[in-house]
Design goal:
By secondary structure, the chain is of the alpha+beta class. Helices cover 38% and strands 27% of the residues.
């Protein structure tokens, strides 16, 4: 795992995972959502304030890109801010290796509809918004391609199996079945 970049959605962002990733000499990009409500609110409010002030006096990195794919045009803006530029974050010391906080604003335009999505991330990477502009969508590709398929095909999220090795065994069986279906 050394040298890898691990991306995890909000479900898998307890602080212990960040520690495990850093101990394995890897880096992380962890989604920040309502699973950490105090930290999420703090980061969201801070970014909103800085956006309104144009990040005046704040060290930050920025990237803007436009991508076109399958009748969809997506504008994406990425701001990376070192944690040293913010007030102390809620439980900041629990996030081993945390260096930067990231905000991504996505504006996908499909046919006649544009949606505005704002997402926040915590990362141990030395932040390069161009690099993160590639890493984060790769995570979405896995999330949308694999997890969505597993949920729609096998109702994975509705599964009530939670004890012993049964969840891992069922997950393995679902993936084997999905791979078999994909081969057909």
């Amino acid at each position: 795992m050394a040298g890898c970049i691990i991306t995890i959605d909000a479900m898998g962002t307890p602080t212990a995972i960040a520690s495990q990733i850093c101990n394995a000499k890897a880096d992380y990009v962890l989604a920040l959502k309502g699973n950490h409500p105090t930290l999420y609110g703090q980061v969201k409010n801070w970014f909103e304030q800085q956006l309104s002030q144009g990040f005046k006096g704040i060290i930050h990195s920025y990237d803007k890109r436009v991508e076109k794919d399958h009748h969809c045009t997506e504008k994406r803006q990425i701001w990376c801010v070192p944690i040293s530029q913010q007030q102390t974050l809620h439980n900041q010391d629990n996030w081993v290796g945390l260096k930067w906080v990231v905000m991504v604003v996505r504006l996908p335009h499909l046919w006649n509809e544009t949606i505005r999505e704002v997402k926040f991330y915590l990362t141990s990477l030395n932040c390069d918004p161009r690099n993160l502009g590639q890493v984060i969508p790769l995570h979405w590709g896995v999330e949308n391609g694999l997890h969505w398929t597993l949920d729609v095909t096998f109702s994975e999220h509705a599964c009530g199996v939670r004890t012993g090795h049964a969840p891992q065994n069922l997950a393995l069986l679902r993936r084997i079945a999905l791979n078999a279906l994909n081969l057909e």
